[in-house]
Amino acid sequence: MIYGIGTDICDIRRVQAVLDRQGERFAQRVLGETELAVWRQRRQRWPRRGLSYLATRFSAKEAFSKAIGLGMRTPMTWRDCEILNEAGGRPVIVLHGALREWFDDRRLRAHVTVTDETDYAATFVVVEQS
């Protein structure tokens, strides 16, 4: 049964503007530990890919927060929700701490897709309840 659906579109140019103002602090606030390591690696090798990665993760977390119906309120936090990739590239949502407990207590399962194009990143999340 579908518990919730969330979608988000993010203007990558706005993410760049925030990075220009705040530097890495913005990424440290939004990304979990594993995401942060990936972002730093991509940013170093290909700055544009690093920017797109950050924008898609920001967008995915916004969409996920909408799908679970909490918005950005506890237990939903930026860093306790990570959007990682399986070996084949498929994005998956990995939760930590109180958010994971909240999610598991409700027997929820999430599906996520992310995409980006020149100026925009977009995400769609479906959360199911078993």
TrEMBL record:
Its main location: cytoplasm. Pfam families: ACPS. Residues 4-123 form the 4'-phosphopantetheinyl transferase domain. It is an enzyme of class 2 (transferase). Its cofactor is Mg(2+). InterPro entries: 4-PPantetheinyl_Trfase_dom, 4-PPantetheinyl_Trfase_dom_sf, ACPS, Ppantetheine-prot_Trfase_dom. Mg(2+) binds at D8, E62. This is Holo-[acyl-carrier-protein] synthase.
